[in-house]
Design brief:
Length: about 200
């Protein structure tokens, strides 16, 4: 059995009877390159909403939605305050604001202090999404040079969601995935090509 087939088998076992409605993907240093390797794998029929959050300098407009719109089969846009979350859509957190998910499944932007020196912070998005979606949430944490995202992945796991972390040994920056593994024992720890292979399966119960 190939490494990809093994990863897919592990994912199906970890998914169990979950029906994923939202996928949250977080990363920092090296995250853009990692997403370039992931998002094109999503088919146009992919049903869950996908929200991506990378550490963006607060004094610079994010061009991530524009960058990935041409690379992804799904609609791609920057998340807006009070915007209802639509299935089959890829959202990106903008710069200068924390992004969170409200109980009515809409986005909220806020100017609270940075978390782990970041705004937007992965923890805030993941924790709020976990409280709303529970077992219907999948969290993916990628390469990064600080510890943002570890608390968020722990919350996702506590609320019954699925957790996937990039293998620190092949991540561009190992601190972020390494801390998540240490803190919350994610369901799957996979290299990026394996994450790419299982990503389209996240809507399969």
């Amino acid at each position: 059995m190939s490494a990809v087939q093994t990863a897919q088998q592990q994912l199906r076992a970890a998914l169990g009877s979950r029906r994923i409605e939202m996928v949250v993907i977080g990363g920092s240093a090296g995250g853009v390159d990692a997403l370039v390797g992931l998002l094109p794998a999503l088919p146009s029929c992919f049903a869950p909403a996908v929200t991506c959050i990378l550490h963006v300098p607060p004094d610079r407009d994010s061009r991530l939605a524009e960058l990935f719109a041409a690379r992804t089969a799904l609609p791609v846009r920057e998340a807006q305050d009070k915007e209802p979350i639509q299935p089959g859509t890829v959202y990106f957190a903008g710069s200068g604001y924390h992004l969170s998910v409200e109980q009515d499944r809409s986005f909220s932007l806020s100017c609270e202090p940075p978390v782990q020196f970041a705004r937007p912070a992965i923890d805030i998005l993941m924790e709020s999404a976990a409280d709303v979606y529970g077992p219907a949430l999948a969290g993916i944490l990628l390469t990064g040079a600080n510890f943002d995202g570890a608390e968020g992945m722990c919350r996702i796991r506590e609320r019954g969601g699925l957790t996937i972390v990039q293998d620190p040994e092949e991540a561009q920056a190992s601190a972020m995935p390494g801390e998540a593994i240490r803190r919350c024992a994610p369901h799957l720890v996979l290299p990026l090509p394996a994450i790419r292979s299982v990503l389209p399966l996240l809507e399969t119960p």
